[in-house]
Each structure stands twice: as C-alpha cells, then as structure tokens.
Amino acid sequence: MLGWSITFLVVALIAAFLGFGGIAGTAAGIAKILFFVFLILFVITLFRRAAS
C-alpha cells in the first residue's frame, strides 16, 4: 500500500510540473488517502504483534 501511495505521489508531482492541475490534485488526494490507510494498518499491526 505504501508503494501505491508513493506511485500516486510521483504521478502528482509530474502532473503538477507539466501543468495538469486537476490530475495533480486528484493523484495527490489519492496518495494522501492511501498513506493514511497504510499508517492506520501499520499501527494496528504493531499493536497486535505487541499484544501477542
């Protein structure tokens, strides 16, 4: 999931550099959502492993 987040971030940066604002904004939003989902799942996994 972190890989997909980084991929969308790179797409957003390239689109912003080339002047495609709508695509850049959408890709950045998707990257942000995927990053937070990854972060939440990572923290849950850490707590589950610590409890075992």
UniProtKB/TrEMBL annotation:
Would the keyword Cell membrane be found if you checked this record's keyword annotation?
yes
Q: Which domain of life is it from?
A: Bacteria
User: Per the record, GO CC terms?
Assistant: plasma membrane
Q: What transmembrane ranges does the database entry give? A: 6-26, 33-51
Q: Which Pfam families match?
A: DUF1328
Q: Which InterPro entries match?
A: DUF1328 (IPR009760)
Q: Which UniProt keywords apply?
A: Cell membrane, Membrane, Transmembrane, Transmembrane helix
The family line of this record is: Belongs to the UPF0391 family.
Protein name in the entry: UPF0391 membrane protein SAMN05444851_2349
Q: Which organism is it from?
A: Aliiroseovarius sediminilitoris
